[in-house]
Amino acid sequence: MRAFSQHAIRVDGAIACCHILFMEKALRDMVKLSSGLMCALSLSACVALGADTIRRPALPSPINRCMNLSDGLEAAYEGEWNYTVRLADIDMLAEAGFDTIRVPIRWSGHAGRSKPYTLEPVFLARVDKIINYALSKDLNVIINVHHYAELSSDPVRHGPRLQGIWKQLATHYKDYPDKLIFEVVNEPHDAMSMQRVDALNASIVRHIRKSQPQRWIILATGDWGSLNGLLSSSPPPGLRNILSWHYYEPFAFTHKQTWDGKAPPPPSRLWGSEDELARAKADFQKAAAFRDRMGHPLLLGEFGVFRDVPVAERAKWVRTVREEAEKNQFGWCHWGFSSNFRAYDADKEAWIEPIRAALLDD
Ligand code: GLC
After folding, report:
1. How far is ligand 1, taken at its centre, from the CA of residue 71, in Å?
2. Which end of the chain is more exposed for a tag (fewer CB within 10 A), N or C?
3. Cα-Cα-Cα-Cα dihedral sign, residues 189, 192, 193, 194
4. pLDDT, tens digit, 9 for 90 and up, residues 301-315
5. Does ligand 1 lie within 6 Å of residue 223's CB atom?
6. In angstroms, rounded to a whole number, what is the distance separating the alpha carbons of residues 162 and 119?
7. Is the pTM higher than 0.90?
8. Protein residue with least CA distance to atom 4, ligand 1
């Protein structure tokens, strides 16, 4: 039987501390303590210890080594970006040693424009097929809402539509095992201010929790999922909420050629000076300190380098970042498998060995 603690509650900008004991139902029924009493007891313990000394043990996240199936279902239609998810790819990932796949999905392109924003059944069935297969291989599967650009430009109009999409997904997947993991939305930005991201996380999590108290939910992070977005967030408490951030620094290095193809590519660069290594280390330490304060597990949901960068430089960066993630006990998810930021060469039907090794070897 497990008993869990504890969450920080923000009061007037300061962090007041209140342990909330979470116990599994049986224990709670047995002890019959009201949550108010539990909170009062733990608050006094907290005051006695001093807020700064409180460590917040989170349940360990089930995500350790993850691969993004980028460029597939995130395109307007699957195949448009030269990648169609193959079940054999899922086999390969499981055999290589990954425990999780993240499937970026453009649900907004497959949902009605007005209430109740009905999802296209054929598209939903396609996603089911991928999820079911990955689950049969004992992988965790993250599904997210990817490339919802209109949400970031017009959140007042599109916030309710995102909620409508999640309402349907929560119903459709309610009986799926815990290995199916939800991610609220990918990289909100612009008009999706930090406050809006926090509010959206809270309301979507609240809705999903009605039917799925056990589901792991990855929260959205503002400012394109950056470190700044993470550090500025006020995530809702919850033992099975995971914080997420993305790391592509220095951006001019990882995105040698801009991915929209509109601007000329910045000059080719090498990476790995002492300053650059120190910057990466410091960034990861900041993320870890935030995780420790908030008490949620942290996932590095995307990191990777554009395929045109020399492979030895790509591998150096990928290994450094993956090792920083592991040192700080973050799960990680490489961007991506067979995409522009690839680890696998579909033309040769072979792993790009230096990238595979940078991700998986000691
Ligand atoms: C974000 C974008 C994706 C892009 C990746 C790397 O996830 O949504 O399209 O390829 O970052 O830039």
Report:
1. 9
2. C
3. negative
4. 999 999 988 899 999
5. no
6. 11
7. no
8. 259
